[in-house]
Amino acid sequence: MIINELLLFLIIPLAVGFINLFLPAFLRKVLTFLALAFGLVMVYLFYQRPTDSFAYFNQIIFSLDQLGLFVVTFIQILSFIILIFSLNGLDKNSEKRFFFLYPITVSFCNAVVLSEHALSFLIFWGLSGLTLYLFATMGKTKAAPQAAKKTFIIIGGSDAFLLMGLVIMWFISPATGWSLNNPQIPLQGEYAHFAFIFLLIAAFAKAGAFPFHTWVPDFSQNSPVESAALLPASLDKLLGIFLLAKMVTALFVVYPLINMILISLGALTVITAVMMAMIQHNGYRLLGYHAVSQVGYMIMGVASGSVLAFAGGLFHMINNTLYKSNLFLSFGSVEKRAGTAELDYLGGLGKNMPITFIMALIGALSISGIPPFNGFFSKWMIYQGLIEKTSTLGPGYQLWLLACIIIAVFGSALTLASFMKFLHAAFLGRRPDIYKDVKEAPANQWLATGTLSTLCIVFGILAVALPLKYFIYPVVEASGMQIPEFLGLYNPIIIIILFAVALFIGLLIYGLTAKVRYDDVYVGGMPGLEKFRISGTEFYNEIRNFSLLKLIYNAAEKKYFDLYEVGKEFTFSFSGYLQKAHPGQLQLYVLYIVIGFLIMILVV
User: Fold this and answer.
1) pLDDT at position 1
2) Judging by beta carbons within 10 Å of its beta carbon (0-12, 13-18, 19+), is residue 174 exposed, middle or buried?
3) What is the phi/psi pair of residue 279, to 5°?
4) pTM, full prediction
């Protein structure tokens, strides 16, 4: 019996996960490494030649279109690089569990992307959410159980909406059965709109978009950094945006108002998350909010209805997985060496960990959209595509879209400001005395972050020649769109030359004129003690005290914008009323039965 090649993406990592339960630590690592390396070889072969779909009882279960191949490719790339980081430095007590969950998570994520049958898609989508929850339970902080519960409820609740959406799609278009192969359902009538909204909830929850995003910073803060880099920073983003891209290109035929609503939700995701990131004092939580913020740009591009912005949104999706995983892992190296993720207690570690600092700097410049790094190019494509789209809209829609673009650009500026705080707090400034003996991260860790940093540079400088040509444009063509002929007046080589000239002139001026004097810090005439050290987070404390922002931040801290907390309060309040309505009096229960019977008669 010949096993279909697509099944290998599911079977091999799944089998490795269960075999790892019985192997010693070294063999677990070797076997997982080989399994993920095999996945890289497979995607390379699939780019060279097409593969047959897998059918069962005359129903196609797995198939691989161009969008699926693109997403599966980066699932393999990201999981392989993050695995390298994980080979050394894991908590010994949770290592066995980690190497069980890691490969089966990759297996389930692969199966989600390959699934053409709705039932298969639903099953593996749910299983990927289950492994996300299991990773969350591995956290060692006091808040880890609550964060795991929150993650499970939000992701699990969205799975129920996914089920309802798929059932409604089958009800609308029974001729296509349960196939997800390009049904192209017009958004006409309430049933089609309900199906679209329900699937959108699932996509937004998985990707971590507003208002279903609040599990991401909690998970990032309380779970092992390796799982935060793998899931909310990488694979969950790929799956969520994959579903959104499939919705707007293959599952539904959307109209301009829907595009505008989705663009607005993307802009809202950008600005709300980056504003919350600016006031965070925990490094992982800060990165978690930025993981949410970057989803907004992907939504604005993929759901815009503009070909150029759609390509930019897909490009930004993979760029985000690169620099966001890099940032999580770089800060993870710092936290493992320093023993804390609180930015107030860190500082000056750039001298002790120069390689890690450089990798974090590249990630920070990339996420902030600084040319010539990859984050700039994808954002640039999204902005151009949206501006180009304004020429096809009426005056009201034009103002609406321009407002969203301005919000997104402003969010990018705030991202840069936030990462200035992040870099200063962790790597610059005065180093606390307790960290004077901190060493550079192990080789496997900076090898992983170095690979991600290199890709951030290469995907920025050679964006057109490499990622766009080989990964993005084939997806655009396969979706029935025409490849954009114009990508804007941007040449990364010229940008590099200009930056190099500016840097040389700056160093020359500094070398000729600088006279640096180092003085001790005195407080009240006495040498400054350690407790008077100014941390990198101090400046941004004032942002929280602005009149308007203070009200918003106070409301956010009281969980007024947290869908999970609001829902929990409503549920407990409602259950409280039900408890009060059941005092144990027989005559009251008889009255309830009579009232219920009367209501049933009226309804019938």
Assistant:
1) 45
2) exposed
3) -105, 5
4) 0.93
